[in-house]
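Field guide to reading this record: the first block holds the primary sequence, the second block holds the structure written as discrete tokens, and the final block holds curator observations. Each block starts with its own label. This record concerns Cell division protein FtsL, catalogued under organism Paracoccus rhizosphaerae.

BLOCK 1 — SEQUENCE
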Amino acid sequence: MRSLTYLACVLVVMGLAFWAYRENYATQAAIGQMAQVRREIADLREELGVLRAEWAYLNRPERLRQLVDLNFDQLQLVPVAPDQFNDLDQVDYPKPPEPEPPLDPSTTPDNTESQP
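BLOCK 2 — STRUCTURE
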């Protein structure tokens, strides 16, 4: 009986060792994937910073003014003037539709057929 208990304990310890071995490699793989994702995030943030810098460079007012002057024949863009703006009171919004009156249940087609 004692040898059976020793054998069961050895099998349990071997099973736990195998489980711990697998969990260790699974954890290492997850850590590696997380490091890869962090590197990708850092690369994307750096790329986003570069794109924002390029956008700011391309949207410089003096550059845009030069482009408007060069392409005035096709675009015919002019600077915005204060008299081009209106108050909200001057906007002609469409009127909301009027709600339909409720139906009278006594005049529905189902009720008229059943009445003598």
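BLOCK 3 — OBSERVATIONS
Residues 2-58 form the longest helix (57 residues).
The radius of gyration is 39 Å.
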